[in-house]
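USER:
Make up one protein:

ASSISTANT:
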Amino acid sequence: MDHQMWEQFLRRWSEEWLAANPDMREQVADGWPGLPPASAEQIAALERRLGRALPPSYRSFLQVTNGWRHTIPFVDELRGADDVGRLRDLDPFMAELYDDIDVFTEEAAVLRRSVLISLEADAGIIVLDPEDVNARGEWAVHELFSWSGEATERHESFYEWMYDSFASFHHLDRPRCETQREWDLKIEEARLASLSGQVDGPLEVLEQAERFGRERATVLLFQLRTMLGDGDPGRLIDHPLADTVNKVQTWELDESLLAAEILPVLFARHARTDHHLTESALAGLQKRGVEAVKRLIADHRSRMSAPGFQISYGNAEFDAAVRAIDFTEPDAWTRLRDALALWRPASNDHLAPVCLMADPRIAPLITPDRGREILSMPRG
Protein backbone atom coordinates (compact mmCIF):
# COMPACT_ATOMS: atom_id res chain seq x y z
CA MET A 1 0.00 0.00 0.00
CA ASP A 2 2.01 2.95 -1.26
CA HIS A 3 1.52 6.69 -0.80
CA GLN A 4 -0.74 7.11 -3.84
CA MET A 5 -2.92 4.12 -2.96
CA TRP A 6 -3.40 5.41 0.59
CA GLU A 7 -4.35 8.82 -0.78
CA GLN A 8 -7.00 7.33 -3.09
CA PHE A 9 -8.35 4.96 -0.44
CA LEU A 10 -8.61 7.62 2.27
CA ARG A 11 -10.14 10.20 -0.09
CA ARG A 12 -12.87 7.75 -1.07
CA TRP A 13 -13.50 6.82 2.57
CA SER A 14 -13.72 10.51 3.49
CA GLU A 15 -16.24 11.25 0.75
CA GLU A 16 -18.41 8.26 1.58
CA TRP A 17 -18.25 8.91 5.32
CA LEU A 18 -19.41 12.49 4.75
CA ALA A 19 -22.22 11.20 2.51
CA ALA A 20 -23.41 9.13 5.47
CA ASN A 21 -22.72 11.88 8.03
CA PRO A 22 -23.44 15.24 6.36
CA ASP A 23 -23.84 16.95 9.75
CA MET A 24 -20.07 16.45 10.29
CA ARG A 25 -18.99 18.60 7.35
CA GLU A 26 -18.39 21.65 9.52
CA GLN A 27 -16.03 19.65 11.75
CA VAL A 28 -13.93 18.30 8.86
CA ALA A 29 -11.91 20.95 7.05
CA ASP A 30 -11.94 20.52 3.27
CA GLY A 31 -13.67 17.14 3.62
CA TRP A 32 -10.46 15.53 4.94
CA PRO A 33 -10.58 13.78 8.34
CA GLY A 34 -6.81 13.41 8.19
CA LEU A 35 -3.98 15.74 9.13
CA PRO A 36 -0.89 17.01 7.30
CA PRO A 37 1.63 14.25 6.51
CA ALA A 38 4.22 13.27 9.09
CA SER A 39 7.64 14.62 8.24
CA ALA A 40 10.62 12.38 7.56
CA GLU A 41 12.07 13.62 10.85
CA GLN A 42 8.93 12.68 12.81
CA ILE A 43 8.89 9.18 11.32
CA ALA A 44 12.61 8.73 11.95
CA ALA A 45 12.18 9.86 15.57
CA LEU A 46 9.36 7.35 16.08
CA GLU A 47 11.49 4.54 14.63
CA ARG A 48 14.32 5.48 16.98
CA ARG A 49 11.98 5.37 19.98
CA LEU A 50 10.74 1.93 18.97
CA GLY A 51 14.19 0.67 18.01
CA ARG A 52 13.10 -0.65 14.61
CA ALA A 53 11.71 0.37 11.23
CA LEU A 54 7.94 0.83 10.99
CA PRO A 55 5.87 -1.70 9.02
CA PRO A 56 5.48 -0.59 5.38
CA SER A 57 1.72 0.08 5.29
CA TYR A 58 1.76 2.09 8.52
CA ARG A 59 4.83 4.06 7.47
CA SER A 60 3.29 5.01 4.11
CA PHE A 61 0.03 5.90 5.89
CA LEU A 62 1.87 8.41 8.11
CA GLN A 63 3.45 9.89 4.98
CA VAL A 64 -0.08 10.72 3.79
CA THR A 65 -1.67 11.76 7.09
CA ASN A 66 -0.15 12.09 10.54
CA GLY A 67 -3.20 10.66 12.31
CA TRP A 68 -6.83 10.05 11.35
CA ARG A 69 -10.19 11.05 12.79
CA HIS A 70 -13.88 10.15 12.91
CA THR A 71 -14.47 7.59 10.12
CA ILE A 72 -13.33 4.38 11.88
CA PRO A 73 -16.20 2.74 13.81
CA PHE A 74 -15.61 3.03 17.57
CA VAL A 75 -12.21 4.74 17.07
CA ASP A 76 -12.51 8.51 17.00
CA GLU A 77 -8.84 9.29 16.45
CA LEU A 78 -5.51 7.64 15.63
CA ARG A 79 -2.32 9.11 17.07
CA GLY A 80 0.17 11.09 15.07
CA ALA A 81 3.78 9.95 14.92
CA ASP A 82 4.87 12.17 17.83
CA ASP A 83 2.32 10.54 20.14
CA VAL A 84 2.81 6.87 19.20
CA GLY A 85 4.72 4.75 21.69
CA ARG A 86 4.86 1.58 23.74
CA LEU A 87 1.56 0.76 25.42
CA ARG A 88 3.37 0.04 28.68
CA ASP A 89 4.63 3.64 28.72
CA LEU A 90 1.46 5.38 27.53
CA ASP A 91 -1.20 3.30 29.31
CA PRO A 92 0.33 0.94 31.91
CA PHE A 93 -3.11 -0.19 33.11
CA MET A 94 -4.08 -1.54 29.67
CA ALA A 95 -0.62 -3.03 29.17
CA GLU A 96 -1.09 -5.11 32.33
CA LEU A 97 -4.80 -5.84 31.82
CA TYR A 98 -4.40 -9.60 31.29
CA ASP A 99 -1.27 -10.21 33.36
CA ASP A 100 -3.06 -12.17 36.10
CA ILE A 101 -5.56 -14.03 33.89
CA ASP A 102 -4.27 -17.50 33.01
CA VAL A 103 -6.53 -18.04 29.99
CA PHE A 104 -5.21 -14.87 28.32
CA THR A 105 -1.46 -15.50 28.47
CA GLU A 106 -0.95 -14.87 24.73
CA GLU A 107 -3.01 -11.68 24.82
CA ALA A 108 -1.09 -10.50 27.89
CA ALA A 109 2.21 -10.95 26.06
CA VAL A 110 0.89 -8.99 23.06
CA LEU A 111 -0.22 -6.06 25.21
CA ARG A 112 3.06 -5.92 27.14
CA ARG A 113 5.12 -5.58 23.94
CA SER A 114 2.64 -3.63 21.79
CA VAL A 115 2.73 -0.13 20.31
CA LEU A 116 -0.31 2.09 20.94
CA ILE A 117 -1.61 3.86 17.82
CA SER A 118 -5.14 4.91 18.91
CA LEU A 119 -5.71 8.19 20.76
CA GLU A 120 -9.46 8.11 21.36
CA ALA A 121 -11.58 4.95 21.15
CA ASP A 122 -14.84 3.69 22.62
CA ALA A 123 -13.53 1.92 25.75
CA GLY A 124 -10.80 0.31 23.70
CA ILE A 125 -7.35 0.49 22.17
CA ILE A 126 -5.68 -0.27 18.82
CA VAL A 127 -2.10 -1.56 18.96
CA LEU A 128 0.65 -2.79 16.65
CA ASP A 129 2.54 -5.93 17.60
CA PRO A 130 6.23 -5.53 16.61
CA GLU A 131 6.94 -9.22 17.33
CA ASP A 132 4.21 -10.56 15.01
CA VAL A 133 5.70 -9.79 11.59
CA ASN A 134 4.75 -11.38 8.27
CA ALA A 135 6.91 -12.01 5.20
CA ARG A 136 6.19 -8.49 3.86
CA GLY A 137 7.44 -6.90 7.07
CA GLU A 138 3.93 -5.99 8.21
CA TRP A 139 3.16 -6.00 11.95
CA ALA A 140 -0.12 -7.49 13.14
CA VAL A 141 -2.72 -5.10 14.55
CA HIS A 142 -4.85 -5.99 17.57
CA GLU A 143 -8.01 -4.22 18.64
CA LEU A 144 -9.41 -4.53 22.15
CA PHE A 145 -12.79 -3.16 23.25
CA SER A 146 -14.03 -3.82 26.77
CA TRP A 147 -17.66 -4.05 25.62
CA SER A 148 -17.02 -6.68 22.94
CA GLY A 149 -16.81 -9.65 25.29
CA GLU A 150 -13.69 -10.77 23.39
CA ALA A 151 -10.01 -10.63 24.27
CA THR A 152 -8.20 -9.07 21.29
CA GLU A 153 -9.02 -9.33 17.60
CA ARG A 154 -6.00 -9.79 15.34
CA HIS A 155 -5.52 -8.35 11.85
CA GLU A 156 -2.63 -9.26 9.55
CA SER A 157 -1.42 -5.68 9.00
CA PHE A 158 -2.26 -2.03 9.55
CA TYR A 159 -3.71 -1.78 6.04
CA GLU A 160 -5.86 -4.87 6.53
CA TRP A 161 -7.18 -3.44 9.80
CA MET A 162 -8.02 -0.17 8.04
CA TYR A 163 -9.72 -2.04 5.20
CA ASP A 164 -11.71 -4.11 7.70
CA SER A 165 -12.69 -0.85 9.42
CA PHE A 166 -13.75 0.59 6.05
CA ALA A 167 -15.97 -2.47 5.52
CA SER A 168 -17.40 -2.11 9.05
CA PHE A 169 -18.21 1.54 8.36
CA HIS A 170 -20.15 0.50 5.26
CA HIS A 171 -21.91 -2.29 7.12
CA LEU A 172 -23.05 0.15 9.80
CA ASP A 173 -23.73 3.39 7.88
CA ARG A 174 -24.54 2.09 4.36
CA PRO A 175 -24.15 5.29 2.35
CA ARG A 176 -25.35 5.38 -1.26
CA CYS A 177 -21.99 5.71 -2.94
CA GLU A 178 -19.52 4.35 -5.48
CA THR A 179 -18.23 1.56 -3.22
CA GLN A 180 -21.72 0.17 -2.73
CA ARG A 181 -22.52 0.41 -6.43
CA GLU A 182 -19.31 -1.47 -7.23
CA TRP A 183 -20.24 -4.22 -4.79
CA ASP A 184 -23.74 -4.50 -6.25
CA LEU A 185 -22.24 -5.08 -9.70
CA LYS A 186 -19.89 -7.72 -8.28
CA ILE A 187 -22.83 -9.42 -6.51
CA GLU A 188 -24.75 -9.72 -9.78
CA GLU A 189 -21.65 -11.11 -11.52
CA ALA A 190 -21.25 -13.62 -8.66
CA ARG A 191 -24.90 -14.65 -8.95
CA LEU A 192 -24.54 -15.38 -12.65
CA ALA A 193 -21.24 -17.18 -12.09
CA SER A 194 -22.87 -19.33 -9.42
CA LEU A 195 -25.74 -20.30 -11.70
CA SER A 196 -23.17 -21.25 -14.35
CA GLY A 197 -21.70 -23.80 -11.92
CA GLN A 198 -18.87 -21.90 -10.26
CA VAL A 199 -18.65 -22.27 -6.48
CA ASP A 200 -15.58 -20.86 -4.73
CA GLY A 201 -15.29 -17.61 -6.71
CA PRO A 202 -18.90 -16.52 -6.05
CA LEU A 203 -18.58 -17.57 -2.41
CA GLU A 204 -15.56 -15.33 -1.93
CA VAL A 205 -17.21 -12.33 -3.59
CA LEU A 206 -20.43 -12.72 -1.62
CA GLU A 207 -18.58 -13.11 1.67
CA GLN A 208 -16.73 -9.86 1.01
CA ALA A 209 -19.90 -8.04 -0.11
CA GLU A 210 -21.70 -9.23 3.01
CA ARG A 211 -19.00 -7.58 5.12
CA PHE A 212 -19.90 -4.31 3.40
CA GLY A 213 -23.55 -4.59 4.44
CA ARG A 214 -24.98 -5.68 1.08
CA GLU A 215 -28.03 -7.66 2.16
CA ARG A 216 -28.59 -9.25 -1.23
CA ALA A 217 -25.17 -10.84 -0.87
CA THR A 218 -26.24 -12.21 2.52
CA VAL A 219 -29.37 -13.80 1.05
CA LEU A 220 -27.40 -15.40 -1.79
CA LEU A 221 -24.64 -16.52 0.59
CA PHE A 222 -27.23 -18.15 2.87
CA GLN A 223 -28.34 -20.36 -0.01
CA LEU A 224 -24.82 -21.43 -0.97
CA ARG A 225 -23.81 -22.19 2.60
CA THR A 226 -27.03 -24.10 3.21
CA MET A 227 -26.33 -26.38 0.25
CA LEU A 228 -22.73 -26.85 1.40
CA GLY A 229 -23.78 -27.79 4.94
CA ASP A 230 -21.65 -24.92 6.23
CA GLY A 231 -22.40 -24.41 9.94
CA ASP A 232 -25.67 -22.62 10.68
CA PRO A 233 -26.41 -20.20 7.81
CA GLY A 234 -29.60 -19.25 9.64
CA ARG A 235 -27.52 -16.94 11.82
CA LEU A 236 -26.37 -15.18 8.66
CA ILE A 237 -29.88 -14.45 7.40
CA ASP A 238 -30.94 -12.64 10.58
CA HIS A 239 -29.54 -9.25 9.59
CA PRO A 240 -31.40 -8.59 6.32
CA LEU A 241 -34.67 -9.80 7.87
CA ALA A 242 -34.43 -8.15 11.30
CA ASP A 243 -35.87 -4.79 12.34
CA THR A 244 -32.87 -3.03 13.89
CA VAL A 245 -32.48 0.55 15.11
CA ASN A 246 -31.53 3.05 12.38
CA LYS A 247 -31.30 0.28 9.81
CA VAL A 248 -30.71 1.33 6.21
CA GLN A 249 -32.23 -1.37 4.01
CA THR A 250 -30.10 -2.42 1.02
CA TRP A 251 -32.28 -5.28 -0.27
CA GLU A 252 -35.99 -5.29 -1.07
CA LEU A 253 -37.55 -8.24 0.73
CA ASP A 254 -38.36 -11.06 -1.70
CA GLU A 255 -41.41 -12.46 0.09
CA SER A 256 -41.96 -15.38 -2.28
CA LEU A 257 -38.35 -16.55 -1.91
CA LEU A 258 -38.53 -16.19 1.86
CA ALA A 259 -41.79 -18.11 2.09
CA ALA A 260 -40.95 -20.91 -0.35
CA GLU A 261 -37.23 -21.51 0.22
CA ILE A 262 -35.78 -19.83 3.30
CA LEU A 263 -38.48 -20.25 5.94
CA PRO A 264 -38.84 -24.03 5.42
CA VAL A 265 -35.10 -24.36 6.16
CA LEU A 266 -35.35 -22.13 9.23
CA PHE A 267 -38.36 -24.09 10.54
CA ALA A 268 -36.50 -27.39 10.05
CA ARG A 269 -33.44 -26.07 11.94
CA HIS A 270 -35.70 -24.67 14.65
CA ALA A 271 -37.19 -28.14 15.19
CA ARG A 272 -33.68 -29.55 15.73
CA THR A 273 -32.50 -26.78 18.08
CA ASP A 274 -32.03 -27.37 21.80
CA HIS A 275 -33.89 -24.27 22.98
CA HIS A 276 -32.47 -24.60 26.49
CA LEU A 277 -28.99 -23.93 25.11
CA THR A 278 -29.50 -21.50 22.26
CA GLU A 279 -32.03 -19.43 20.35
CA SER A 280 -32.73 -20.56 16.80
CA ALA A 281 -32.61 -18.10 13.93
CA LEU A 282 -36.37 -18.54 13.52
CA ALA A 283 -37.05 -17.74 17.17
CA GLY A 284 -34.90 -14.64 16.84
CA LEU A 285 -36.81 -13.46 13.78
CA GLN A 286 -40.13 -13.99 15.54
CA LYS A 287 -38.91 -11.35 18.02
CA ARG A 288 -36.78 -9.07 15.85
CA GLY A 289 -38.04 -9.58 12.30
CA VAL A 290 -39.62 -6.81 10.28
CA GLU A 291 -43.42 -7.02 10.24
CA ALA A 292 -43.54 -8.70 6.82
CA VAL A 293 -41.18 -11.42 8.06
CA LYS A 294 -43.25 -12.01 11.20
CA ARG A 295 -46.37 -12.28 9.05
CA LEU A 296 -44.74 -14.80 6.71
CA ILE A 297 -43.55 -16.87 9.68
CA ALA A 298 -47.09 -16.96 11.06
CA ASP A 299 -48.48 -17.90 7.63
CA HIS A 300 -45.98 -20.73 7.24
CA ARG A 301 -46.70 -22.07 10.71
CA SER A 302 -50.42 -22.03 9.90
CA ARG A 303 -49.87 -23.95 6.64
CA MET A 304 -47.68 -26.51 8.39
CA SER A 305 -50.48 -27.28 10.84
CA ALA A 306 -52.98 -27.97 8.07
CA PRO A 307 -53.69 -31.64 7.24
CA GLY A 308 -51.68 -32.92 4.29
CA PHE A 309 -49.17 -30.06 4.30
CA GLN A 310 -46.25 -30.60 1.88
CA ILE A 311 -43.22 -28.52 1.03
CA SER A 312 -43.15 -27.21 -2.53
CA TYR A 313 -39.80 -27.98 -4.12
CA GLY A 314 -40.01 -25.17 -6.65
CA ASN A 315 -41.16 -24.87 -10.25
CA ALA A 316 -43.77 -27.44 -11.33
CA GLU A 317 -41.48 -29.68 -13.44
CA PHE A 318 -38.85 -29.98 -10.74
CA ASP A 319 -41.44 -30.37 -7.98
CA ALA A 320 -43.11 -33.27 -9.87
CA ALA A 321 -39.76 -34.97 -10.51
CA VAL A 322 -38.78 -34.81 -6.83
CA ARG A 323 -42.17 -36.15 -5.72
CA ALA A 324 -41.76 -39.11 -8.05
CA ILE A 325 -38.61 -40.25 -6.18
CA ASP A 326 -38.81 -42.97 -3.55
CA PHE A 327 -36.30 -41.72 -1.01
CA THR A 328 -36.05 -45.12 0.66
CA GLU A 329 -34.49 -46.60 -2.49
CA PRO A 330 -30.71 -46.81 -3.10
CA ASP A 331 -30.97 -44.80 -6.33
CA ALA A 332 -32.65 -41.82 -4.64
CA TRP A 333 -29.60 -39.55 -4.86
CA THR A 334 -28.98 -40.41 -8.51
CA ARG A 335 -32.59 -39.65 -9.40
CA LEU A 336 -32.54 -36.39 -7.41
CA ARG A 337 -29.34 -35.32 -9.14
CA ASP A 338 -30.89 -36.05 -12.54
CA ALA A 339 -34.02 -34.11 -11.60
CA LEU A 340 -31.95 -30.99 -10.94
CA ALA A 341 -31.77 -30.40 -14.70
CA LEU A 342 -35.43 -29.36 -14.42
CA TRP A 343 -34.89 -26.84 -11.61
CA ARG A 344 -35.37 -23.15 -12.36
CA PRO A 345 -34.74 -20.14 -10.07
CA ALA A 346 -37.93 -18.46 -8.95
CA SER A 347 -36.40 -14.96 -8.89
CA ASN A 348 -33.17 -13.05 -9.40
CA ASP A 349 -32.33 -13.72 -5.75
CA HIS A 350 -32.71 -17.50 -6.04
CA LEU A 351 -29.53 -19.56 -6.48
CA ALA A 352 -30.32 -23.13 -5.45
CA PRO A 353 -33.18 -25.44 -4.31
CA VAL A 354 -32.43 -24.90 -0.63
CA CYS A 355 -35.93 -26.03 0.39
CA LEU A 356 -34.71 -29.60 -0.23
CA MET A 357 -32.72 -29.22 2.99
CA ALA A 358 -35.99 -28.76 4.91
CA ASP A 359 -37.25 -32.25 3.99
CA PRO A 360 -36.07 -34.83 6.57
CA ARG A 361 -36.00 -37.53 3.86
CA ILE A 362 -33.89 -35.51 1.44
CA ALA A 363 -31.54 -33.47 3.63
CA PRO A 364 -29.49 -36.50 4.81
CA LEU A 365 -28.84 -37.41 1.15
CA ILE A 366 -27.27 -34.02 0.42
CA THR A 367 -23.90 -34.28 2.13
CA PRO A 368 -21.52 -31.29 1.85
CA ASP A 369 -19.80 -32.97 -1.11
CA ARG A 370 -23.11 -33.58 -2.85
CA GLY A 371 -24.19 -30.03 -2.06
CA ARG A 372 -21.05 -28.83 -3.82
CA GLU A 373 -21.86 -31.16 -6.72
CA ILE A 374 -25.29 -29.55 -7.03
CA LEU A 375 -23.77 -26.07 -6.99
CA SER A 376 -21.23 -27.15 -9.62
CA MET A 377 -24.03 -27.93 -12.07
CA PRO A 378 -25.20 -25.16 -14.42
CA ARG A 379 -28.64 -24.27 -13.03
CA GLY A 380 -31.63 -22.65 -14.64
Observations:
- The radius of gyration is 25 Å.
- The longest helix spans residues 3-20.
